[in-house]
Amino acid sequence: MNAYIEAFHAILEEECYGLNEFESFLDVYTVVSEYMQYYNQRRMHDSLKYMTPSQFHQMFRNGVAAGQAIVA
Predict the structure, then answer these.
(1) Where are the domains of the chain?
(2) Which of 2, 50, 51, 70 has CB atoms 3.0–4.6 Å from 55's, for a disulfide?
(3) What is the pLDDT of residue 19?
């Protein structure tokens, strides 16, 4: 499981932290919250066959997409 969180942190660093200069904790909170919305709602993920997590979740709930077991 650690590889997944490390990959996410690398993406967060590259696509969010590295592109912004923060002036306050509120600024960080706002920018990271917006990025998380983007990451979960609009960003295509190759691990989900280039769907957004929201799209994949909806297809999974409708029985159209199948998930894979995560083995630690």
Answers:
(1) 2-61
(2) 51
(3) 94
Q: What are 13-69's pLDDT values in tens digits?
A: 999 999 999 999 999 999 999 999 999 899 998 888 888 988 988 888 888 877 665
The Cα–Cα gap between 18 and 68 comes to: 31
Q: List, in sequence order, the alpha helices (H) in 1-72.
A: 2-15, 25-41, 53-61
Residue 54 is encoded by which pair of tokens? Answer: 């929201």
Pairwise CA distance, residues 72 & 57, whole Å: 22
Tell me the pTM. 0.72
Return the SS3 of 45. Answer: strand
Q: Which residues of 45-69 are buried (b: 16+ CB within 10 A; e: fewer)?
A: eeebeebbbebbeeeeeeeeeeeee
pLDDT of res. 1: 62
